[in-house]
Structures are given as C-alpha cells and as structure tokens.
C-alpha cells in the first residue's frame, strides 16, 4: 500500500484539510491537479507506484499537458502549468516529509515565468455610482446595499463576506472579525456608512429572510441560507449593469478597488497588507503598480509637456 498513488493522494488532501486548514475550494484545486497527474501516470505511463516517479516523468507530464490541453480542448497557459507545478511540489514535499520518498523528483523543477496582469479596479466615481444603485426601501436591495458597502469598506474576500457572522461585527469599536485563508483570523476596520446600512439591514430585512437554519450568518439569501459565491456575483452584476459600467467586474474587484483607493489616499502598504490578510507583502505590492499607472495617466492628462 505504501506506493499506491491514490492512497497517498488522499492522505495529502486530508493533511491539507486537517493540518493546513485550507479552504474547500483550495483543496478541490489540488485534488483536480493531482487526479490529472495520477491519471496520466496510470493510463499513459503505466506507473502505479509513487517511487517510480522521476523528474523526467514529471517533465513528460507537463509536455503532455501542453500538447493535449484540457478535456475541453483548451491549451493550458503558462499560468495553468505553473499551478500544476505548484500542486506537484506541495504533494512531493509532503511525501518527502513523511519519508514515503527519499528523492524529490520536482525539487529543481523550474516554474514558467508568467506575466502578472494587474487587476481591474473601479474609479472612486464608479464605486460611488455602484453603491448608490440599490433601493434601500426594498428589503432585498437593502441587503444588497449593506453587502456591497461592507465589501468595499473592508476589502473582504467573497468567501469572507459570505461566512461573516453578525456576532463578529463590533459596532462601537468599528471593526469586523473575519476568518481568512488558512483559517487565519484578522481584524478589519469598517466605516460608519457600512455600519449604518448593516444595522438597517439587521433591523428591517434580515428578520424577514432568516429561518431556523440561518444561524448567525449575516447576509442571507431569500431562502434564509448564506449567500453563495455565485449569489454575490449575481447581485453585483445586477448593479454593474444598472450603472452601465463596461469593465469586467467581479466580487474581487471591490477588494482591489478598496486597496487601490486606500493607496491613492496615502495609506501605508503594510497597513493595507494587514487589512487584506496577505501573508506576503509582495502580493500587496501589485497595488503599487496600479497606483503608478494612475500617476502616469494623471501626468499625461495634465502636464503641459507630457
């Protein structure tokens, strides 16, 4: 059993859930990548033991991916290949730490360099327009108003706002307590405007939406359950369309806009890193590039010799 591919794959996924406390979506991504790799080993290379996997085996798998593409016929991008390599490195590092293998076949594997696309953000004017669209006299749109104000005020990930509980809002102190990636808890400030609409929603809309299964989840759908990722996307798209905004807007756009507007206002990047819950400042530094592009655009627009 010690060499069985599926056995060790499942142990690794259990490790990610129990020891690393990774989210369901992250574990599912690892699972898909490893299943593709293991299927290749069995079906193409006729390999069934983990100790029969060498560096050349992995290199051939990556070439196979580039040649065959996905099941839908799409060619894998460098970004997708880099994700596969990252998944395999985590898997084999785990196997090495558990003494399942003595030689790590991917330790020196190079990851393709990928260009980092800057995330699209809304201008302050576009954000104000978006937040003005929900009709707060309508019970569901009052929920939408509170939801969007909270996302923009605190820069929450969509999973964080979906799982936000009413008991984790500290109204007098002006902050939220959220559970981020890897079950890491952090404190995030929230502005008075967002708090005002959260209170209004909790008084006027949430009692109508909630049922015996709602628990303490703050933002509820019409069935009394927590809003899903797709539900939040649909709410956002509704108001984006009403605004006539042509940008590719998704829930993370409000998070990007939150960070960019703070940076433009003069906030220190390490404070923004803390509020976003980034473990590595290099992740936050992408917003300095957005701000740089904004400065260049302002210079071009207003300098007489630009």
Euclidean distance between termini CA atoms: 69 Å
CATH architecture of the largest domain: Orthogonal Bundle
CATH-defined topology of the largest domain? hpI Integrase, Chain A
Q: Provide the number of structural domains.
A: 2
Q: Mind telling me the CATH class of the largest domain?
A: Mainly Alpha
How can the largest sheet be summarized? 3 strands, antiparallel
The largest sheet has its strands arranged as: 1-2-3
Radius of gyration: 23 Å
Tell me, rounded to a whole number, the average pLDDT. Answer: 86
Mass-distribution shape: elongated
**Helix/strand class:** mainly alpha
Q: What low-confidence regions span 5 or more consecutive residues with pLDDT below 50?
A: none
Instruction: Provide the succession of SSEs.
Output: HHHHHHHEEEHHHHHHH
How big a fraction of the residues is strand?
Answer: under 5%
The DSSP helix count reads 14
* Share in helix: 55-70%
The total beta strand count reads 3
The named CATH superfamily of the largest domain = Intergrase catalytic core
Give an overview in words:
The structure is a single chain. With 306 residues, this protein is mainly α. It has 2 domains: 5-97, Orthogonal Bundle (DNA polymerase, domain 1), CATH 1.10.150; 124-302, Intergrase catalytic core (hpI Integrase, Chain A, Orthogonal Bundle). The protein has 14 helices and 3 strands. It has a 3-stranded antiparallel β-sheet. A hairpin with a 5-residue loop joins strand 2 and strand 3. Helix 5 (124-132) crosses helix 10, helix 6 runs antiparallel to helix 8 and helix 6 packs across helix 11 (251-264). The protein is elongated. The mean pLDDT is 86.
């Amino acid at each position: 059993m010690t060499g069985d591919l599926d056995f060790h794959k499942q142990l690794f996924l259990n490790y990610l859930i129990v020891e690393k406390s990774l989210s369901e979506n992250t574990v599912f991504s690892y699972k898909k990548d490893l299943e593709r790799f293991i299927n290749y080993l069995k079906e193409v290379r006729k390999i069934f033991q983990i100790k029969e996997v060498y560096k050349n085996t992995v290199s051939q798998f990556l070439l196979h991916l580039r040649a065959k593409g996905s099941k839908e016929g799409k060619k894998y991008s460098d970004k997708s290949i880099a994700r596969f390599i990252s998944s395999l490195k985590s898997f084999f590092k785990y196997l090495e730490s558990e003494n399942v293998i003595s030689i790590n076949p991917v330790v020196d594997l190079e990851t393709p360099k990928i260009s980092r696309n800057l995330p699209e953000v809304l201008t302050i004017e576009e954000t104000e327009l978006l937040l003005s669209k929900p009709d707060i006299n309508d019970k569901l749109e009052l929920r939408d108003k509170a939801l969007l104000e909270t996302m923009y005020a605190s820069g929450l990930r969509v999973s964080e706002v979906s799982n936000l509980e009413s008991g984790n809002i500290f109204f007098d102190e002006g902050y939220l307590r959220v559970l981020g990636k890897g079950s890491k808890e952090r404190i995030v400030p929230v502005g008075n405007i967002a708090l005002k609409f959260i209170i209004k929603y909790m008084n006027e809309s949430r009692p109508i939406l909630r049922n015996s299964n709602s628990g303490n989840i703050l933002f509820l759908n019409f069935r009394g359950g927590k809003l899903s990722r797709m539900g939040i996307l649909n709410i956002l798209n509704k108001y984006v369309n009403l605004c006539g905004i042509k940008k590719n807007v998704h829930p993370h756009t409000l998070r990007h806009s939150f960070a960019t507007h703070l940076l433009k206002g003069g906030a220190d990047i390490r404070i923004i890193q803390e509020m976003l819950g980034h473990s590595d400042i290099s992740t936050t530094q992408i917003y300095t590039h957005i701000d740089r592009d904004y400065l260049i655009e302002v210079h071009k627009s207003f300098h007489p010799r630009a």
